[in-house]
Amino acid sequence: MQQGFDKKRELSPQKRGEPEIRAYLDNSATTRPCREAVEAAARSMEENWGNPSSLHTMGFLAEQELKKSREAVAGALSCRPEEIVFTSGGTEADNLAIFGAAYNRIRRGKHIVTTAIEHPAVLNAMKQLEKEGFSVTYLMPDRFGWITPEQVYEAVREDTILVSMMAVNNEVGSILPLEAAARAIREKGAPALFHVDAVQAFGKLPLRPNQAGVDLMTVSGHKIHGPKGIGALYIRKGVHLAPRVFGGGQEQNIRPGTEPMPLIAAFGAAVKALPNLREEEERIRGLNVLLRKKLAAMPEVKIHSLEKGLPYIVNLSAGTVRAETMLHFLAEKGVFVSTGSACAKGKESHVLAAMGLPKEEITSSLRVSFSRMNTEEDVEAFTSALEEGLSILARKGVSRLRKLS
Questions:
Q1: Distances from the Cα of 387 to the Cαs of 22, 145, 312, 321, 322, in angstroms?
Q2: What is the pTM of this model?
Q3: Ramachandran class of 257: left when φ > 0, alpha when ψ lies in -120 to 50, beta otherwise
Q4: pLDDT tens profile 254-287
Q5: How many C-beta atoms surround the C-beta of residue 55 within 10 A?
Q6: pLDDT confidence of 402, banded at 50, 70, 90?
Q7: Which of 202, 245, 290, 324 has the CA that lies 20 to 30 A from 104?
Q8: Residue 271: which residues within 8 A CB-CB, separation 6 or more?
Q9: How far apart are CA 89 and CA 360, in angstroms?
Q10: Any idea which residues carry the catalytic annotation?
Q11: Average pLDDT over residues 353-362
Q12: Torsions phi, psi for 133 (to 5 deg)
């Protein structure tokens, strides 16, 4: 199992012109590619660089690599290889699922159920569908980011054609009631397809979409120590989506175009390199407990993530100091966290706003997110730097900037 940064792979910070990395704790934004993924991508570019659609030997070898990678992703989801379609990442997979399902079922209704705490890839797709005449119900979370099974059941109607819900919230780590959603669709007799954005859950929780009543599931490579620019959409056998892209027939005509084999090979390698999920979750939970213990000694800090959520994510308010200010202070110390979803690019968190948190807690919120490369030393580095930052920045009056702005 790969834990901690491999210092042998590190260039001198001075040569890179970058600060020394003491602790990288922004893994919900992206993870460092594992050695297996990097080597697989290099082999695909240097040795096995044929087009998998070509009929000669080079094409056959590339096709075999494509097949192995598809089998690896399918194995991680306990599904058939033919139910996996490779995409450019989570955003494209979400869009293919949502628009494909909505357009395919439009004759059976125009009502959709989702939550107010989804990733922008889902929420912005929903906004577009609303402009086209679809009706969308947004379920609101409690103050810890949880959606109840009762909320889902009450929202599903006889004309609901799509339910789209993330498995794990990317900002606070709350786990959403997927089984309740699948059950509501069955019991209400709705013609809905069930889509799950499992980007933050893949490689961390056991996912079996077939058994869970899920029709469509989104996963991504760069959250599990694979490369950016590659993801996959699980499409249950028998489910048909209206196509959004047209081309040469690759990926079952759902996402046609020459497959990016270096990325796909690396994705497959990263999946194969995943540790035992149960054992790793226990190890990460230990880091979570240690972090909470350290934060409890800082009276200015408030934790927004409940302990029963995914242990890989902890959202907190950094006292009265603006999140961006604290973020830059920590980065100067070689500690890297985030202010929320990387896709928000510094905008106020719609997740924390939907949770009804006070504005001062939203503007000072930080997200710590673990991966299998993190250790107790990373927790120590973060909490030590955070404590120093709270002391120095508050003393300098940085917190007053909020009141003046």
A1: 16, 26, 21, 12, 14
A2: 0.91
A3: left
A4: 887 878 999 999 999 999 999 999 999 999 999 9
A5: 9
A6: very low
A7: 202
A8: 69, 72, 73, 75, 76, 203, 224, 226
A9: 33
A10: 343
A11: 94
A12: 105, 0
